[in-house]
Structure formats: C-alpha cells, structure tokens
Amino acid sequence: MSATGETESPARDCVHWGRTTIHYEISFRARKTLAISVHPDLRVSVTAPLDSDPEVIRARVRKHGAWIREQWRELELYLPKQPPRRFVNGETHRYLGRQYRLRAIQGEVNSVKCLRGYFQITSREEPTPALARRRLEAWLRDRAEAVFHQRLEVCQTRAEREGIPRPILKIKRMRKRWGSCAADGTITLNLELIQAPKECIDYVIMHELCHLEEAHHGPRFWALLEKLMPDYDQRRALLNRVIAQ
User: Fold this and answer.
1) Which part of the chain is the YgjP-like metallopeptidase domain (predicted)?
2) Looking at residues 201-220, what average pLDDT do you find?
3) Under DSSP, is residue 166 helix (H, G, I), strand (E, B) or coil?
4) Strand runs (DSSP E) across the chain, as ranges?
5) How confident is the model over 57-71, as pLDDT tens digits?
6) Please, are residues 119 and 104 in contact by the beta-carbon 8 Å criterion?
7) Edge-to-edge, what's the strand order for the sheet holding 98-106?
8) Could you tell me the domains of the chain?
C-alpha cells in the first residue's frame, strides 16, 4: 500500500453471473463508496474503500451483472480505431484472425495470393499503393462472400432448432457495428469482420440470428443466445481483443 493509503496495483477477482464469468480488477482507495466501471476494452474495474470485504465486493459485482453485460453489448457495437492503411510493402493486414504482410510486385498475371504469411499482389501494371488497395480489397470482399455464407450455414443449422427462420444475408462496410438485423429478416454483416477468426464471425452471425426471434436485448434474447452459443461472451471478448491489436 502506498503512503497515500491506496493500493499500488489492483487485485483481481471474478464472479459468476448465470453462466457468464465476470473478471474484474479491484483498487482500494481512501473513499466511502464502491464504484464499478466497464472500459472500452471490456475490462471491468472496481474502486472500493480500503476496508471493503471481498465478499461484499463480489456481491455488488454480481448484483450489477445485468448492467455489466449491457455495457459490454453497447461497447461491442463500436469498432476499435485502427491506423489508416497505406498499402505499402511490409504493412500487415489481418485475415481470419491472422496477420499477413503485404508484398506487391509486378508480373505477367494479375493475382492476389495469401500464402506463407504474405498477401502477394501481382500486377501487370506498376504496383502502386492505390492499385494494391483495389486488388486486396476486392479479394477480401470475395472471400467475405464465401466465408460469411459458409458460417451462416453452420449457425443456421443450430438456430433452426429454435424455429429461427433463414435470413437474407448482405455484406457491406459499416462504421460502428459488426452486424445488424432488419425487420424484414435481412442480416447485414460488416465487411471488416473478415479480419476476425471464424469463431468470432460465428458469434456475430448467431447474435443477429437471435434478433430474428427477439428484437431487443432483453432477458429472453440473452437466454436464447446463451442456449445456442454457451461461450458467446468468450467469443465476443476474443473479437474485441483480436481486432484491437
């Protein structure tokens, strides 16, 4: 403990709220009240009075389980900010959770290949950054079309057991959401989701499929999502962690 009466580093603990495990950090301070915060990277922190009983803290965190999960839901709607891509040789780009370095060369045939840790873009023209960007983005869109439809088929097999209808799938760039669900049964996925591992893509798809049955994020929605994907919270945390790197 420091001379100011504060702990030098936060302690760590966790509680179970339903089937969700809430991990949190605790900082003890010279104060009278206990405060719970949820941060943009989905971390949960507790600031507690110096003489707080750990069991009292656990009970308070558990009591606020619904609120914490609601904060996670809100935060996951917003994409982490990434530096602008320059599309120059050596720059890294993510595909299905892995990082690949960009290698743009001039050759006889126009092609984009993903192999041995590289995106190799071959062009008959001079391989400028603008050209590399067009070629790579077109390739990623084609892959997104294939992968997202494939993952939808996997998730739909489980969703059909709960009577959830088959949706229409659209793909487009979205500024603030990984996915959305319209009243007409259309699910839209963010093209940027092709950066994430397949288990994270499945999470976003299943989340939106559940909205076909439950429009709002009420208790029935979360119960349905948990039934269809018991580890959804771990997948959500992985999505935010991987994309933020």
Assistant:
1) 32-241
2) 91
3) coil
4) 11-17, 20-29, 35-38, 44-49, 92-95, 98-106, 111-115, 118-123, 168-172, 179-181, 186-190
5) 999 999 999 999 888
6) no
7) 92-95, 98-106, 118-123, 111-115
8) 11-76 (no CATH), 92-244 (3.30.2010.10)
Provide the 10 A C-beta neighbour count for residue 82.
12
Torsion sign across C-alpha atoms 105, 108, 111, 115: negative
11 touches 26 (CB < 8 A): yes
Q: Does the pLDDT value for residue 3 go beyond 50? A: no
DSSP string of 10-65? -EEEEEEETTEEEEEEEEEES-SS-EEEE-TTS-EEEEEETT--HHHHHHHHHHTH
* Token pair in block for residue 139: 């390739």
Instruction: Determine contact, residues 93/85, Cβ cutoff 8 Å.
Output: yes
State how far the Cα of 34 lies from the Cα of 56, in Å rounded to an integer: 10
The sign of the torsion formed by the CA atoms of 65, 70, 73, 77 equals negative
Question: Could you give the 3-state DSSP secondary structure of residue 80?
Answer: coil
Query: Do residues 30 and 6 make contact, with C-beta atoms less than 8 angstroms apart?
Result: yes
Type of residue at 156? Q
Whether the Cβ atoms of residue 199 and residue 235 lie closer than 8 Å to each other: yes
Summarize pLDDT for 25-51 with one digit per residue, the tens.
999 999 999 999 998 778 899 999 999
pLDDT, tens digit, 9 for 90 and up, residues 90-123: 999 999 999 999 999 999 999 999 989 999 999 9
